[in-house]
Structures are given as structure tokens and as C-alpha cells.
């Protein structure tokens, strides 16, 4: 196996762990953490491909920076919604977020 294969295997493993966490968890804070894990797995894959493919040097790092910015915005909005809902319901379980419908 090449060196890039190991990085992509790590990225795939982290992405699968994050996807399982998003689908299996009920706590909204843990769901947000698993989404961050999935985004970081994509960052690892982008940077690995950028470093090992001479034709796209630097582009993967640029996309990774955009993903980090997107992740920061996602966490800010997501945790603001969680805090606002916790003040009303006193719970952070995803099942009780039906108030946001409609």
C-alpha cells in the first residue's frame, strides 16, 4: 500500500465512525461532535490527496480551510439552537426538538 492509501483509510474509518455516531446518538451535542469528526475526515483526505498528487498542489489545503470555516459556523449555529432549546425544555435529546418544526 502507498502512503496515501493509509491516509485515505484513516479518513474513511473516521468518516464511518462519525456517520455511525450521527445515526445512532440521541444527544444533540454528540451529534454535532460526530459531524465535526466527519468534516475532519474529509479534511484529512483532501490534504493527503493534495500532498501526493503534484497536479493539484495546494488546492486540497485551500478546500480544507473552507471546510474548517464552515465547521466553525455550523458549531456556532448548532450550539446556539441547543442552548435556546435547553432553556425551554431542560434537555438536549434530539427526540425533543420537535418544537422547531413548522
Explain what you see.
The protein is mostly helical. The N and C termini lie far apart (about 50 Å). The chain is about 75% helix and about 0% strand. Helix 1 (about 5-25) packs antiparallel against helix 2 (about 30-50) and helix 2 packs antiparallel against helix 3.
Give me the secondary-structure topology.
Layout: H1 3-24, H2 28-52, H3 59-89
Helix pairs in contact: 1-2, 2-3
Query: In whole angstroms, how far apart are the ends?
Result: 51 Å
CATH class category name: Mainly Alpha
Structural class: mainly alpha
**Molecular shape:** elongated
Strand and helix order: HHH
Rg measurement, Å: 17 Å
Unreliable parts: none
Q: On the 0-100 scale, what is the average pLDDT?
A: 87
The fold-level CATH name is Helix Hairpins
Number of helices: 3
Q: Which key terms come to mind for this protein?
A:
single chain; 102 residues; mainly alpha; Helix Hairpins; 3 helices; 76% helix; elongated
Describe the structure concisely.
With 102 residues, the chain is mainly alpha-helical.
